[in-house]
Amino acid sequence: MPVVAFVGRSGAGKTTLLCAVVRILAAQGIRVAAIKHAHKGFEIDYPGKDSMRLREAGANPVLLLSPMRRAWLEEVAPAAEPDLWEAVASLGRSPIDLLLVEGFRAEGMPKIELYDPSLGQLLCERDPDLLAVASEGALSPPDGPVSFDRNDAEGVALLILQAAGLAPRSQGGGNGSFPRARGPLPLQEARRILWEAMTPERMAAEEVGLSQSVGRILATDLASPVDLPSAPTAAMDGYAVSAAHLGEQGREFSLAGTSAAGAPFLGSPSEGSCVRIFTGALLPEGTDLVIPQEEVVLQGEKVLLPGGRCVGENVRLKAESLAQGQELLSAGTRIGPRMLALLSAVGREKLPVRPRLRVGLLCTGKELRPLGKPLGPGEVYDSNRVFLSAALAELGVDLIDAGIVDDDPELLEEKLDRLAEKVDLLVTTGGVSVGEGDYVGKLLAQRNAIVFRQIAVKPGRPFLFARWRGRPLFGLPGTPAAVFVLFYDLVGPLLRRRMGESPSRERMRLPALSRMQKRAGRTEYRACRLVAGPRGEPAFHPVSRTDGAGLLPSASADLLALLPEESECIEVGERVEVIFLPR
Ligand SMILES: Nc1nc2c(c(=O)[nH]1)N[C@H]1C(S)=C(S)[C@@H](COP(=O)(O)OP(=O)(O)OC[C@H]3O[C@@H](n4cnc5c(N)ncnc54)[C@H](O)[C@@H]3O)O[C@H]1N2
Ligand code: MOO
């Protein structure tokens, strides 16, 4: 949920502007929640009221519920500052598009400062989160934050909509400093808006057992509770002895006993004795190295050990692999088998993971048939739904598949409404172009839900981003090749960001091995194979000369190349951004 704070010195007019902005946003159908910083011990309850009597009797929290309003009265542990983010998390899954906060200047979030020079300096001058300043008459800083007159609530509201990636319902306002893109948005610009709109959801973590955690995103950093190994152990099968007893020349030793993994030798061998030891077994007290059995000569009851060895040879020291308190995994890690191995080795049975994101999927088109049904004239199998269900499942989301919907505006609206109630985010395919039957784009435009429409890419140009009932909505074109590229370049990475996953290293620049022509003014996607270049270095070439990113090339591609917007031709050897594709 986007959060914007109104900060400023007392008396600068925060609440007045905030109320005016809320009024404008609410009138546009944006569901705004507000949090106000208050001083300790405020009271909204009245002496003698039942709620206060219950509270005084020791009930905590006390909830007051009526059919039209509810209040939550809770005594919290006294602290220097109230915990904003805990309160934000407790808003949970309330249907909110935007949270406006009054105060909490020290927290990291976009801020608008109400500034009155007669009350003192600007508070957030050095704060990188400062979005705008509102004061008596707009200031005109050379290159500072945007500036507004403090009565320009329209301008501030529009700025907030832009910053939050919400759909602006009106144009103009402010300093006129929000140019709206005409025609398709450059990919970089679309990426920036999407990235800001899809910040990680602040949701409480869930505890899951290790075996249920594969594919989930770790919610907090984890440190090792133990040392590994917990004490020195043998790294080879052989004989444990003390370097001091061994000396430079080597000599005969008697055998004091055996130390095996799980069955240690208890006690400490005397001057002339050594201990038979196996890999992983605890090193007996008083010994400090292991001589591999291949280097030892057995003579009846005696063992001839070679000399000139160093302390610690063939020994794994205490905490050599892991020290207690050492960081194991950081928040945002996607859990896979390798992480399970690490966590089980330190005895961790449960993990805090981020809740699953609920994603609703809807494919539109009269011509679509599910697999297994015979095709009529002009009909096609719904391959987008098959692809997206599998690709979304791979990301570990909770998928709610609403199936296929005909190109019928009323049906579509009803389906979207019902789906939006159950999910955090919507993905649709088809119906975003300009034809008579393309109702997705039309409906969203009529409901003022579109944040942007069309990006300068091929394929995938009609991609749109909207808000439906407060939920982000990715409107993918119907063309399967466009769905494929947009999923791997935008939708997938954005969902992963929303889920709190740390950015991964699936993108890099690689040299092209063939010359590729394109049109300037748009980013073109090409399905490509990873190959070895002339000196064995990683390089790539397109799967197909003709079909940039069709379904057939996509199925055999290793990576997706993004041929840059400005160029008309990629020369052999030129480095280009590529995205590695999962299997
Ligand atoms: N006059 C214009 N026509 C088109 C433009 C344009 O700018 N002006 N843009 C073209 C581009 S680019 C694309 S991409 C498509 C996008 O159209 P829609 O999103 O409205 O998609 P549909 O018309 O519903 O379908 C397009 C195509 O894809 C097939 N399809 C749709 N859904 C599925 C599915 N689930 N599984 C498999 N195949 C699917 C559908 O049968 C169509 O063949 O518009 C161009 N037109
Ligand atoms: O952009 Mo569309 O996806 O080329 O066919």
From TrEMBL:
Annotated Gene Ontology cellular component terms: cytosol
GO biological process: Mo-molybdopterin cofactor biosynthetic process
Catalytic activity reported: adenylyl-molybdopterin + molybdate = Mo-molybdopterin + AMP + H(+)
Pfam families, per database record: MobB, MoCF_biosynth, MoeA_C, MoeA_N
Pathway(s) per entry: Cofactor biosynthesis; molybdopterin biosynthesis
E.C. number: 2.10.1.1
Protein's name in the database: Molybdopterin molybdenumtransferase
Protein species of origin: Methylacidimicrobium tartarophylax
Lineage: Bacteria, Pseudomonadati, Verrucomicrobiota, Methylacidimicrobium
